[in-house]
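Example record

One chain of 89 residues, shown exactly as stored in the release files.
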Amino acid sequence: MDTRVAVIGIIVENKDAVQQLNAILHEYGEYIIGRMGVPHRARGISVISVAMDAPQPVISALSGKIGALAGVSAKTAYSKPAGEPPVTP
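Predicted C-alpha cells for this chain:
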C-alpha cells in the first residue's frame, strides 16, 4: 500500500490523558518519523507535532484515536500522494 507523509498537530489540555496518548503513539511507532513536544506552562497545555510516513488509513486511525481522548485535540495535514504532479501557478 502506498504511504503518505503527514503531520499531526496535537493540543493536550488534560494532563491526565498524557499516559494514554504516549501509549497510542508507541503503538504506531513504526510509522513515526519524529515528534516534538512543547509545554506552554503559562496556559497549562502542551503542543505536540508528530511526523509520519504511513498508509492513509493508518494515519487516519491514529489521528482519530488521539482526538477521542478527553481534553486532547488533533488535526492532520497530508502530503500529496506519491507520483501526483506538483501544483504549478
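Notes: The chain has a mean pLDDT of 93.
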